[in-house]
Design goal:
heterodimer; A: mainly alpha; 20 helices; 3% strand; B: alpha/beta; Rossmann fold; 2 domains; 10-stranded mixed sheet; 17 helices; 48% helix; elongated
Chain lengths: 404, 452
């Protein structure tokens, strides 16, 4: 054997591709012993915690979806970063030794890229699985695959893997794990702030947010959730918080009669079926008009019909009368709670109006649910992955220049 | 036109003095005048006080805080650039950019203050003054600079050496050994590094021929350049040198020659979570040529494990091994490729006398197979009988590693007039390191012997 080695000086040694295999097999072998396995349960726990918070409104409302998209992106970025931020720097001296013994840096990094891809893939699968079992309602129909859950899984994987590659580059750049872990908060905070998911970003930050995977991650997941066509709950929720507030409303006789003519509104229908005296009393209580005397006279005018008819019949009769023509321009000032007013207009009607019309103001082209848009985001992620993978190789090629 | 002239003048003043306000200019000029004196006293070229950024670096050099000087110089450049961008060039940047640069400037100022404090404390030490002078330097730096620079009562305890000038004065070393066909031939002219515009000599004028089958001891005090020399010999850190191994140039054909050279580093650089057999297998896969079939490779791995007494524990994890086993595994990883030149950096560190002897005996056996084995050890006398030759590297008065001796063990004893290797090291070590400080003397003596 020794002779064979002696005689093979001019023969070739293992090239880059063969060395990728050697390093990759070693990484897989060390997976269990080197505590990397802990990254998997950690991913499950993080996904579980985040799902608990966002599960009700994710894929349901605009706000919930944006919140969920940000949370899912952050989970993916967190997983990716912590997968690789220490892997190179913790064995930097070993790499130097192996490099001088003939190991190619490119092979070493590519093997890590392959290994990290598998790790991110498993973590992303687990994350999406946890989201499903936590009750997040992911739509069935996918855009680029037949299943939306697979589409979302691919996006989570690409976000996670992009973050992984950035962290891998940082790990190549720094010389020890302490420095690597000190850089991590800066990386994560920058990603969070410039994601566009928490703050409305000013125009000057476009260049910076264009470099953030979190920004593309939030947009991609929101687009997959069909953000633009979801209702917006904020306006309705705000009104609900103010429902007991008194407001002052001015309305003409004509407006009051039109409002009391509706057969779609439950409250109005209930009033219309009541006897005139009862209905008049209720309306006085609801509206509490400033001009109480005049309003009572107006109600009496409606109640000129025989006493045994309902208020609805009396209103219909009043609309046809000469008295209505004379009185319809007259206005009253009412003090009423917001909720009572909404009930009079119709709860569903108001809710639908607010959710749909408020949502229109929030629709953005980058949230468009289209194959081209999603594919565009995926291409961005691939660019990040390849760019930072290449940067890692270039950076680590200088490992021999470390000061002794 | 007048406005433009004032603008240019302002920018120039900002650049040169860091200010354009008249009273600040006076203060700054006083400070520079003071620094001129400080530099003169410390052995730095005084005119450097007039050059912005350089003066910040040089004052740190005077304070024996050269590394801090580099940082402060870079920070000064950045701070000036930011100042010019935001104030100097008159362009109306968006508020966000100005605020961002402003935040950066604040961060730079904080770091600069910390580094300034370190440098000024260093200056107090060099001038043997109380630390309370720091406050004068911070609050009234022109006064402090003028006082320290021009008052004869303030004198530095050490001067900055200008290695570039002194390097010309040092003696000619041992160059020009005849190259041999077999064995290792080293003709190293110089090994330098450039740090912040300063060229520093790590090694100079080292020549020798080592015959195959020789086990060579590499001796030298701390910082003499032993590891640097070995890295230069094996081509890992190239020097201005010609290194031939069995007639082949190590530098020009490094990609192939690296497999003929085994270098065992000082630390046990292996993955603790891997097993011995996997570690050796990975080493074999990397170091053996592709024509060695898996069966032969496994046989070789088994042989090497047996040679180094690791066969029985091959399934153990590396992190569970004893210090001796770790060293042997580290050596086995390099020996797997059966290298012609085997270099070991302190292979016996952390081992007791018996284990160290055992290890060195194994290395002797490797040398007896016709290999060249070069070993650095700090406890040579307990195993000196196993060595054929000794290389003695010494740090000269300019902190450059030089060859003080190369030859047989007996010749070394006679050359240095000492009966043990440890005493030889003592004689060449500087007085600061507890030695006799005779490095220059032996470097000259050996150069004279070699040059006839």
């Amino acid at each position: 054997m020794a002779d064979k080695v002696e005689n093979t000086r001019s023969l070739r040694y293992r090239g880059r591709i063969e060395q990728v295999g050697i390093c990759f097999v070693r990484l897989i072998r060390l997976f269990v012993y080197q505590n990397d396995w802990k990254l998997l349960p950690m991913a499950v726990i993080i996904a579980g915690l985040v799902s608990l918070v966002v599960r009700n409104d994710f894929f349901v409302t605009m706000e919930g979806t944006l919140k969920g998209a940000l949370a899912l992106s952050c989970v993916a970025i967190w997983n990716g970063c912590f997968n690789s931020v220490q892997v190179i720097c913790r064995e930097r001296d070993i790499i130097k030794r192996e490099h001088r013994s003939g190991m190619h840096i490119s092979s070493y990094i590519v093997s890590h890229m392959l290994y990290q891809a598998i790790l991110c893939l498993v973590q992303s699968g687990l994350t999406v699985y946890i989201c499903i079992i936590m009750g997040i309602k992911i739509p069935a129909q996918g855009l680029l695959t037949p299943w939306m859950v697979v589409d979302i899984g691919i996006t989570v994987f690409l976000i996670s893997y992009s973050a992984d590659m950035i962290a891998l580059w940082i790990s190549c750049l720094v010389h020890n794990t302490t420095t690597a872990m000190s850089i991590m908060p800066f990386l994560l905070i920058t990603q969070l702030v410039f994601s566009g998911g928490i703050f409305t970003l000013p125009a000057w930050s476009d260049g910076i947010s264009g470099l953030m995977i979190s920004n593309y991650g939030v947009k991609c997941i929101a687009a997959q959730a069909d953000y633009n066509n979801l209702p917006m709950a904020t306006a309705w929720n705000t009104i609900m918080k103010l429902k007991d507030q008194d407001i002052t409303v001015q309305a003409s006789v004509e407006q009051i009669v039109i409002m009391l003519d509706s057969d779609e509104n439950e409250m109005v229908v209930a009033i219309r079926t009541k006897r005139i005296a009862d209905a008049s009393q209720e309306l006085l209580e609801i509206f509490a008009p400033e001009e109480a005397q005049q309003f009572t006279e107006f109600l009496n005018m409606i109640g000129a019909a025989p006493d045994n008819t309902t208020f609805g019949d009396a209103i219909d009769a009043f609309r046809e009368s000469k008295a209505y023509e004379n009185a319809k321009g007259k206005t009253f000032t009412f003090h009423v709670t917001i909720w009572k007013l909404i009930e009079l207009i119709g709860v569903e009607k108001v809710q639908d109006f607010l959710q749909v019309n408020a949502a229109v103001t929030q629709q953005k082209p980058y949230y468009e649910m289209s194959q081209q848009n999603i594919a565009n985001y995926w291409i961005h992620f691939l660019f990040f992955i390849l760019a930072f993978g290449a940067l890692s190789i270039v950076t680590l090629e200088f490992v021999d220049k470390d000061k002794r | 036109m007048e406005d433009m002239f004032i603008k240019i003048l302002t920018v120039l003043l900002e650049l040169l003095l860091g200010t354009s306000t008249w009273w600040r200019i006076i203060f700054r000029l006083l400070y520079i005048f003071g620094l001129y004196g400080v530099f003169r006293k410390c052995g730095v070229k005084p005119w450097k006080a007039f050059i912005p950024f350089v003066r910040e670096y040089e004052i740190a050099v005077c304070a024996d805080h050269e590394m801090e000087g580099r940082t402060i110089a870079v920070l000064s450049v950045l701070s000036t650039i930011i100042s010019l961008i935001t104030d100097g060039i008159g362009y109306d940047f968006p508020t966000a950019v100005t605020l961002l640069l402003g935040s950066l400037a604040v961060a730079i100022i904080i770091v600069s203050i910390i580094y300034d404090i370190r440098i000024m404390l260093g200056l107090c030490e060099v001038f043997q003054r109380r630390k309370r002078w720091l406050w004068v330097w911070i609050l009234l730096d022109p006064v402090a600079a003028v006082l320290w620079g021009w008052n004869d009562k303030f004198q530095p305890s050490m001067k900055v050496e200008d290695l570039r000038e002194d390097a010309l004065k040092i003696v000619k070393g041992t160059t020009g050994h005849t190259e041999m066909g077999e064995g290792l031939s080293v003709n190293l002219t110089e090994r330098t590094v450039t740090e912040f515009f300063h060229k520093r000599y790590l090694l100079r004028d080292i020549s020798m021929n080592i015959k195959p089958g020789h086990m060579v001891l590499l001796l030298g005090g701390s910082g003499a350049g032993k590891t640097t020399f070995l890295n230069a010999v094996n081509g890992y850190e190239k020097a201005k040198a010609k290194v031939l191994l069995n007639g082949k140039d190590v530098y020009s054909d490094y990609k192939k020659m690296q497999y003929q050279i085994g270098f065992v580093p000082q630390q046990n650089l292996m993955r603790g979570k891997d097993t011995i057999s996997h570690t050796v297998d990975d080493a074999a896969l990397l170091r053996l040529p592709t024509n060695v079939n898996p069966q032969d490779r496994k046989t070789r791995e088994g042989e090497v494990l047996d040679i180094f007494g690791l066969g029985a524990s091959k399934d153990n994890h590396v992190e569970k091994l004893s210090g001796g086993q770790l060293r042997r595994l580290s050596i086995a990883m390099e020996f797997i490729s059966n290298p012609s030149l085997f270099i070991l950096d302190e292979p016996d560190s952390g081992l007791d006398g018996v284990m160290a002897r055992e290890l060195m005996t194994q290395l002797r056996k490797i040398a007896d197979q016709g290999k060249i084995v070069i070993v650095i050890t700090h406890t040579p006398d307990r195993v000196i009988d196993l060595f054929d030759d000794v290389i003695v590297l010494a740090k000269d008065s300019h902190r450059t590693g030089r060859l003080a001796f190369f030859g047989s063990i007996d010749e070394a004893r006679s050359f240095f007039g000492r009966d043990s290797m440890e005493k030889i090291v003592m004689s060449i070590n500087s007085k600061d390191a507890g030695g006799e400080g005779r490095a220059d003397e032996f470097i000259r003596k050996y150069a004279e012997v070699c040059n006839g």
